Amino acid sequence: MNDQLSITFAALADPTRRAILSRLTTGEASVTELAEPFDMSLPAVTKHLKVLQRAGLISQGREAQWRPCKLEAKPMREAAAWMEPYRRHWEQRIDRLDHFLRETAHKGARRLRTRK
Amino acid sequence: MNDQLSITFAALADPTRRAILSRLTTGEASVTELAEPFDMSLPAVTKHLKVLQRAGLISQGREAQWRPCKLEAKPMREAAAWMEPYRRHWEQRIDRLDHFLRETAHKGARRLRTRK
């Protein structure tokens, strides 16, 4: 499990880590700020941040005392790109279902007209 | 780690499982067909299929002897939906970069015209 996609998906397979990423979409935040909403010790949160950092999903600034964490787009963009064929797959299925329903409705309407 | 999203992402965090899912976007397949491209024992492949099945990403038919596996769209759709805000986040960043580059090019062109 050393490929980037596997590392990204493994990092996303945790609700706390996903909540941290969600928070970071609104802007940079310090470790203390990120820890605030969780009923968790600072070391526990730091551990999650390390997983996210190793996956390249976030980076931590070196400047200033508060060392802000911020989102890095690349791994998430690659994960989303990997999902694209599935999106097409289910959209096609929805299209086929839509087509089937329209056809059925159309036939039903025709049958009603013939009966009149 | 009992929430559906964590289970989905954990199931996706493996290259063999992702390859199996990719194969299934082209249509249903038996376990033997799915095992074929991998240098893996049938029990090893079956183990991966069980993880995918438990995550709800695939289902296995009960009819016929070959019990075809097929994709189930829902968990992947939910995972993709979870990623949407990040897509918007990086698209906004790209837009800002694009705007900055256009502005810079515009200013550069104006400076050149003033010099003439």
Task: Compose a concise summary of this entry.
Chain A is mainly alpha-helical and 116 residues long.
Share of helix of chain A, binned: 55-70%
Note the beta-strand portion of chain A: 5-15%
Q: Which ranges of chain A are low-confidence, i.e. pLDDT below 50, for 5 or more consecutive residues?
A: none
Mean pLDDT of chain A, rounded to whole units?
Answer: 88
Topology of helices and strands:
Two copies of one chain form a homodimer.
Chain A lengths: L3 H9 L2 H10 L6 H5 L6 H13 L3 E3 L8 E3 L1 H43 L1
Antiparallel strand pairs in A: 1-2
How would you describe the overall organization of this protein?
The structure is a homodimer of 116-residue chains. The first copy, chain A, is mainly alpha-helical. The first copy, chain A, has 5 helices and 2 strands. Chain A has a two-stranded antiparallel sheet with strand order 1-2. In chain A, a hairpin with an 8-residue loop joins β1 (58-60) and β2 (69-71). The relative contact order of chain A is 0.12. The mean pLDDT of chain A is 88. Chains A and B meet through α1, α2 and α5 of A and α1, α2 and α5 of B.
